[in-house]
Every structure is written in C-alpha cells, then in structure tokens.
Amino acid sequence: MAVEDPRDPREAHMHGYAPMTPRCRMIIIERIASGRPVAHVAAEMGVSRKTADKWWRRWLAEGEEGLEDRSSRPHRCPHQTSSRLEARIVRIRQRRKLGPARIASIVGMPASTVHRGAVSAWTEPTGMDGPADGSAHSASSHRSAGRARARRRQETGPDPTWRRLANAGPGRDWPP
C-alpha cells in the first residue's frame, strides 16, 4: 500500500490541530498490517492504543472508506419540536401578533423554544418586512454592525464635534 500524496485535496479541509488525517490513519494501517504491534504503532503516531485499534478494525470492515471523517451530526433528535407544533406557533404569531412569552403560555412550552421556532420560520408579527432573502435577522448581524461602528471610530478618531463641545465652557461661543 502506498501513502497518498501529501497535497491530497481531501485533506484541504483539515484544520491545523487535527490529530488524525485520513493519510495518518493509513500510515497506522500500513504499519499494523506489516505485523507490528498496535500499541507500538499507536505510541509512535501519538494516539492511544484504543484509537489505533479502532482505525484498524474500521479498515478491516470498510476498507479505505472507513478511514474518512464521519459526520458528528446525530441521526435523530427525539426532543426536537415537531413541525406541527412549529406551524401552530407560527400561525398564532401571524394571526394574533403575540410575542414568544404569550404564545408559550398558550402552547405550554418555554418562551425560548417558542422564540426559536418563530425566528426559524421568520414570520414578522408586526407586519414589518423581513430580509429580502427570507432569512431571519440574527443577533450576530447586529453585533457585527456594532463592531463595524467601533472600528470606524478607531480608524477616524473621535468626532470633532464632541471635542468642540468639551472645550466649550461658560462665556465661550458655540459653534466656534
């Protein structure tokens, strides 16, 4: 078995602190396949014996595809709000124009859950228009706007009007 090209595009998404890339996993497999003990190979590669053994067993069962990264997303989420209940929350929000706290008392669930459902559906109870693309406003967009204002203030310095106001005292003319 040959080691893959180090410029493999599949490894381009790996961050700098990734402990194991598919190429490193293949090196482990090659060394174990050559007859070396799993514990020795694991120590050389800086991983636990259990981890090296896991990759070995995956490779035996699935081949090289078993060495690829897998999604950490759960297969299911049993406590997720049902789409039927979300539709009810949206309907109440549209028709009665109530906020999350009032809707929560009607549907019998926490206000934070109601808010998450309403925001994810992006329905505006007050009749105000939402974004053109239909996406929800996020708190991060408001924070980033505040950071942009602060950055502009740093780049341009303090507003000269405030400086003049601070220097204005009794008996001084305004504006200068």
TL;DR of this structure?
The protein has 176 residues and is an all-alpha fold. The chain has helices at 22-33, 38-45, 49-62, 83-96, 100-107, 111-121, 139-156, 160-167.
Distance between the termini: 82 Å
Oligomer: single chain
Strand content: under 5%
State the low-pLDDT regions, or none. 123-130
Question: Averaging pLDDT over every residue, what do you get?
Answer: 75
- Helix segment tally: 8
Largest beta-sheet details? none
Please tally the β strands and state the result: 0
Q: Tell me the Rg in angstroms.
A: 29 Å
Shape: flat
Determine the structural class based on helices, strands and strand pairing.
Answer: mainly alpha
Helix content: 40-55%
Order of helices and strands: HHHHHHHH
Characterise this structure.
The protein has 176 residues and is an all-alpha fold. Among the domains are: 9-67; 83-121. Helix content is 53%, strand content 0%. The protein is built from 8 helices and no strands. The chain has helices spanning 22-33, 38-45, 49-62, 83-96, 100-107, 111-121, 139-156, 160-167. The protein is flat and about 85 Å long.
Q: What topology emerges from the helices and strands here?
A:
Layout: H1 22-33, H2 38-45, H3 49-62, H4 83-96, H5 100-107, H6 111-121, H7 139-156, H8 160-167
Helix pairs in contact: 1-2, 1-3, 2-3, 4-6, 5-6
Keywords:
about 180 residues, mainly alpha, 8 helices, about 0% strand, flat
